[in-house]
Design a protein that fits this description.
Blueprint (H helix, E strand, L loop, with lengths): L3 E4 L9 H16 L5 H8 L4 H10 L8 H19 L4 H9 L4 E5 L4 H10 L8 E3 L12 H10 L6 E5 L2 H8 L4 E4 L8 H13 L1
Parallel strand pairs: 1-2, 1-4, 2-3, 4-5
Length: 206
């Protein structure tokens, strides 16, 4: 039986792709005077920690190593500004969490802790979380399963007693390698009470 639901953040509990895209491009524009195209961000960069995005840009010879700190810090500051400006309380997600209170609820994300907590707070979801694991809490972010394994260990339950909700290829790989049950979604709008209950019933009675 499922005892816990482990949620990814961006693309699952919040629709933050645009927030990350906007803040990264503002930082790159300020420091290096270029922007990443939207389709490129979705195909290559979406779901990755900022430092990994910068490593890819370094490999592409679009930034230099000594640019990393200034771009990273500007991106974090700008992300917080964008979240404060754009985030709203999501009644659909509150309905989901209210109806699944019998389960342990955890968020496991590649975002830094400050950003993750702010996203959850501004969308009204933070108080529903038993805890949050950010990329600062692990040595290897997704696609490594470390964050999910850490959550399962803290909950003191078996991997198969957890349902992970993920949308990105890297998150799906992490979930599959954790041994937990996977609910793969196409995006934020698919994470509804009805869909989550259907998947819970499937795993509980298969």
């Amino acid at each position: 039986m499922i005892k816990a639901i482990l949620y990814d953040l961006d693309g699952v509990l919040v629709d933050a792709t645009e927030w990350h895209y906007e803040s990264l491009n503002l930082a790159l524009q300020q420091v290096k005077n270029f922007k990443i195209k939207r389709d490129e961000h979705i195909q290559i960069f979406n779901g990755l920690p900022t430092m990994r995005k910068l490593e890819i840009l370094l490999e592409q010879e679009r930034v230099e190593k000594n640019d990393f700190n200034s771009i990273w810090q500007k991106k974090q500051d700008l992300t917080i500004e964008v979240i404060k400006k754009s985030a709203f309380v999501d009644s659909n997600k509150l309905r989901l969490h209210d109806a699944t209170k019998q389960y342990k609820i955890v968020c496991v994300t590649n975002s830094i802790r400050e950003t993750a907590l702010l996203m959850l707070e501004k969308t009204g979801q933070l108080n529903y979380m038993d805890f949050v694991i950010s990329n600062e809490d692990v040595s290897s972010p997704k696609p490594s399963p470390e964050g999910y394994l850490q959550a399962i260990s803290r909950l003191k339950i078996k991997p198969e007693e957890c349902m992970i909700v993920e949308d990105s290829p890297k998150g799906i790989e992490a979930a599959n390698n954790s041994g937990a049950q996977l609910f793969e979604v196409s995006g934020y709008n698919e994470v509804t009470l009805e869909n989550v209950l259907l998947k819970l019933n499937y795993f509980n009675f298969k």
